[in-house]
Amino acid sequence: MILISGALIVNYGLNEEERMAHFEIGQQAQAIEVGAELFEINCSGCHGPQGEGVPGLCPPLNDRYFFDQRLEEVKWSGSLDDYIVSTVSTGRLNSTRPELYSGGGVPAMPTWSEAYGGPLREDQIRNIAQFVMNWETSAPDRTQAAVPSGPGVGTDINIVLPEGDPVAGEALANSQGCVGCHISTNTGPGWLPTEGELGIGSRAETRLSDPLYTGSASSPEGYLLESIVLPNEYIVDGYVANIMPGSYGDTLSAQDTTDLIAYMLTIK
């Protein structure tokens, strides 16, 4: 029995390294799976469902540049994993690339860690980092700008738009990251109704008679169009200029814009 026990212990010890390696792989896979769910709930609204980013709003994370050059760009001396954890935890007040993404005196990214007033635990943020790092080996080059679905709608808020599709508009609101600022967080004026405020669809109808309104629109549709393509024409009380990208007149087609407006008008 002593010899058998000794042999078993020796055999167990010889296989311990391999066993621990399998255990580590399993733990990492579990962390990535949990991180994927957390990313979808908390991050995809701004960074895209597959980390592809939203032009003018949030940079891509599933991107060759992010893995190969981001640390050099921001002069981070630690690991990329720790950089992701730090950025997610503390948020970002100012954009590091204000010519491409929003920021500048307003939260470019909210804080997510409980330690800084956010909703997520440290282990959850580590899981998100593991999920993002999972893209490293397959991340594509996203240096090419996204191609609009048609000519830009422009900045004339009196333009006659085609009929809008609210279902398509809802999908666009998600893909363009609108929900990340206007529904998921309070970076921009909220679209959903609250106890003290109507939804964006109803507010668009009453905004024109508000003495504080300083824009040029004469209809609810015109007000929403102005808010999209000329976001600094009228700043909602409590917010400041340059929160929202001013490039949507170039990047959204007339059909995309009217679909988005049709969706917004359904939020009463």
Protein described:
The protein has helices at 2-14, 16-42, 44-47, 64-68, 70-74, 80-90, 122-133, 166-175, 178-182, 200-206, 220-229, 248-251, 254-265. The protein is an all-alpha fold. The protein folds into 2 domains: 11-133, Cytochrome c-like domain (Cytochrome Bc1 Complex, Chain D, domain 2, Orthogonal Bundle), CATH 1.10.760.10; 166-265, Cytochrome Bc1 Complex, Chain D, domain 2 (Orthogonal Bundle), CATH 1.10.760. The longest helix has 27 residues, at 16-42. The mean pLDDT is 86.
Name the features.
268 residues; mainly alpha; Cytochrome Bc1 Complex, Chain D, domain 2; 2 domains; 47% helix; elongated
Question: Mean pLDDT, as a whole number?
Answer: 86
What does the overall shape look like?
elongated
Largest beta-sheet characterization = none
Tally of helical segments: 13
SSE-based structural type: mainly alpha
Instruction: Please identify which CATH superfamily of the largest domain we are dealing with.
Output: Cytochrome c-like domain
Short synopsis of the structure:
The protein is mostly helical and 268 residues long. Helix content is 47%, strand content 0%.
